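Quick one before lunch.
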Amino acid sequence: MSAIIARAHSNIALIKYWGKRAEGLKLPLNGSLSLTLDQLYTDTRVSTWQGRADRLMLNGQAAPPLAEARVQAFLTRMRQIWGLTGFLQVDSVNHVPTAAGLASSASAFAALALAASHFWGLNLGREDLSRLAREGSGSACRSVYGGFAEWLPGVSADGADSYAVALPYQLPVVMAVLVLQASAKKTPSGEGMARTVATSPLYPGWLETVQADLQTLKAALAAGDLQTVGETMEHNALAMHASALAARPAVLYWQPESVALIQHIWALRAEGHACWLTMDAGPNVKVLLPAGAEKTVEALRSHPAVQELILCRPGPAAHLLASE
Ligand code: PMV
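Model of the PMV complex:
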C-alpha cells in the first residue's frame, strides 16, 4: 500500500468546549456536544515521504510553517506511542464552499488520525481514534463520528478517559452556516480559551452553566424537543462568549455584522420562525432550524450581512475513501 485517503467532516458544538485542564494533551475542563455537518469536510491523503521531516500540503500548496509543525508534532506523537518509523507526506484539501475562514482543524485532524492510523496498519477502534484526534485539535475528537457526538471530558491526567462517543439521536434538523462580509483578525481558539481560563472572573460561572446546559440539551435531544435544544444551544454559546469577553485582555469574536444577524434571528423568532444561533471562535453565525423550513432559510439568506449561506444536514462519520 502506498497511500491512504480519508475524509472527515466538520462539527459545530451545540454545547461548547471552552477551556483546557492540560494544554499538551488537549484535555478539556468541560464536556461538550456537537453535530457533524455534511457540507464541510477535509480529505487527507498520506503517503511515504523520503525527506527528513513530515511534509504538509494544504489545498495543493506547501502549508504555512505553523500548520506543518502542528502536523509534524501530531505524527511524531503517533510514532512515539506506537513505536513507528518513517516520515509522511500529508496532502490535505478542505472542501468548504468559500474561503471565509471555515476550514476547520476538527475535520483536518480527524481525517489525519484516520488516514495515518490506517497507513501505519494500526487497527484503532472509534474511541481510540477519537482520543488520538483530540491530541491534534480538541474538537477533532467529535468529528470521528457522524450526527450528534458527546466529548466526555474525563478526569485522568493521561487523557485515557477523554474522548467522544456517538449519540444515537436523530432529529430532523439542519444547520445554516452564515458566512459574513466581515473580515476579522482572529484570536485562535486555543489562545482565546487559555486567556479566558486564566483571567476571566466569569469562567467559574461558565463551568457551572455548561454542566447544566449539557444535561438539559441531552434530555431534549432524547425527547425530540427541538425548541429546548435550540434555546439551550443559544444560551450556551452566548455564555461562552460572555466568559471570553470578561478576559484580560478581552476576547471578542463578534463583528458588527454578527450582532446584526443575532438581532435578525431574534426578530425572526419573535415572528414565529423556529431558529436558534451559535457562534465559535470567529465572526460567522450558525443557525439551527428544522429541516424543510425554507421560508426561514430564505429570511436568513436575504439579510445584507450574509455573504453566503451553507445549508448543512447532519453529516457522516469519518471514513476511508481509498487506499492506493
Ligand atoms: O478544538 P479547537 O481548538 O478548534 O476549539 C474549538 C472551540 C470552539 O469551536 C469555540 C468550541 C467547540 O466546542 O468546538
